[in-house]
Amino acid sequence: MKIGLLLVLAIIAACTRPTQVIAADPDREPLTLARVIELSSAIAPDVRLAGSRIAEGEAKLAGAEVRTLENPKLDLNAGPRTGAQNSVDVEVGLEIPIELGNRRGKRIALAKAGIRREEHATEDVRRQAVAAAVGAYYRVLQAEERLGLAQDRKTLADQLLRVAKERHLAGDAAKFEVNLARTEVARAASEISSAQGRIALARVALARALGVPSGAELRIVGTIRERIFFDSIRPAPDSPMRADLLTAQADVEASRAAISLAEAERLPDVAFRLSYQREGDDSVALGGISITLPLLNPRKAAVQEARVQHQRAQITAGISQAAIEAEIEGARSAYDAAVEAVRSMEADGLALQQENETLAGESYRAGKINLATLLQVRRDSLETRREYLERLLEAAQAGVDLASASGKWQP
Questions:
Q1: Which domain holds residue 170?
Q2: Which of 12, 185, 285, 292 is 20 to 30 A (C-alpha) from 278?
C-alpha cells in the first residue's frame, strides 16, 4: 500500500510539472515505472519538440503586439533648380498607416489562441510519449522474463543430458536418447541467444522513447506481473477533459479569432500623409489622408476560408469527443479481459503444467517413460509459460492503453 502511494505521488508530480530536461542520468538511476513516467513526460523527443512549438507561438504573439504591421514611410527628394544658382528644391513626405477595426487586438487574440492550442497539444504529446515509454518498459521486462525462461530450459536440458548419459552407460537407455538430450541442450542455448537479442531490441526501443543515447546500460527495475497502478484507474464523472479534446476546442477558438481578424482586414487601409515642399523661396506644407478602395479585391476569400476552417474545427471537436468516449470504454473492456486471461493461466494452466513436468521427470529417472516423452511434456510446459508471459504483456499493454485513453497517469 505504501509503495502504491509513493508511485501515485511520483506520477502526479511528473504529469503536472512543465516540460523540462531532468538532469539525473537515466543510465545510473534505476528505471522503475514511476521513473519511466517521470523521464518520458519531461525529456521524450516528441515532448521537447512540442515545447518548442509553444515558444514559436510566443514569438508570433510578440510579432502581433506591434502597433501596426506597416511601418511609416518617409520620402525625401532634393535637387538644384535648373537655371538658378544656389537654389535647391526640396520635397519631403511622411505617410503613417492607421489600422481600422482593432486589427492589432484581433491579431493578439489569434496569437494567444494559438499558444493555448499548442499548450494543450503539448500535453497530448506528453500523454502519448508516456504511453510509448511505459509500453517499451514493459516489453523490456517481458523480454528479460523470456531470457530467464530460456535459462531455466538450458539448466534442465543440461540435467537431462547428464541423466541420459548415466542411463546409457548403465544400459538402461539407447544412444538416441543421449542424442535427443544433446539436441535439447543446443536448442536451449540457441533460445538464450535469441532472448538476449530480444532484450537488446526492447532496450533500444525504450531508449528511443526516453530520448537517451543508449539502452544497454539502463537499469530496469520492476515486474511485469504488477498491475496495481492500472487496477486503480477508474473513470470519474468530474475528471478533466483529455488534452487532445482541449486541443480540438482550442482550434475552434483560434479559428473564431481568425474569422474576426479576416473581417477586420477587409476594411480599407488608411494612412495619414504629411508633406513639405520648397521650391526656391516658396514653401508648401500639406496634410492629408489616403484610403484604399477595395473595388477590385474586396478581400472576401480570407473571410470565407476562415469560416470554413471554423466549421471544420467544430466538426473535429465533436468527432474527438465521441471517439475519446469510445476509446475509454473499449480500453476498459480490453484491460478487464486481458487481466482475466492472466488469472485463468495463473489459476490452472501454470500449476498443472508444472506438476506434469515434475511427474514426467520422476518417471523418466525411474525408467517408466523414455526421453522423447519427457521432452514433449517439458516443451508443453515451456510453451505454457511462454503463453503466460504473452498474456502478461498483453495485460500490461492494455493497462497502458487504459491509462492513455483516460488521459491521466494517476488514479
A1: 2-406
A2: 292
Any idea what the CATH number is for the domain that residue 283 is in? Answer: 1.20.1600.10
Report which residue type is found at 278: R
Share the mean pLDDT of the chain.
84
Give the separation between CA 23 and CA 392, rounded to whole angstroms: 33
Q: Indicate whether 411 belongs to any domain.
A: no
- Digit-coded pLDDT (tens) for 350-363: 777 777 777 777 78
pTM, two decimals, is 0.80
Band (pLDDT 50/70/90 cuts) for residue 7 is very low
Q: How far apart are CA 411 and CA 403, in angstroms?
A: 9
Residue 271 bridge partners (DSSP): 97, 290
Residue whose cell numbers read 511609416: 72
Report the number of distinct structural domains present in the chain.
1
Q: How far apart are CA 101 and CA 103, in angstroms?
A: 5
Q: What span, in angstroms and rounded, lies between the C-alpha atoms of 288 and 93?
A: 11
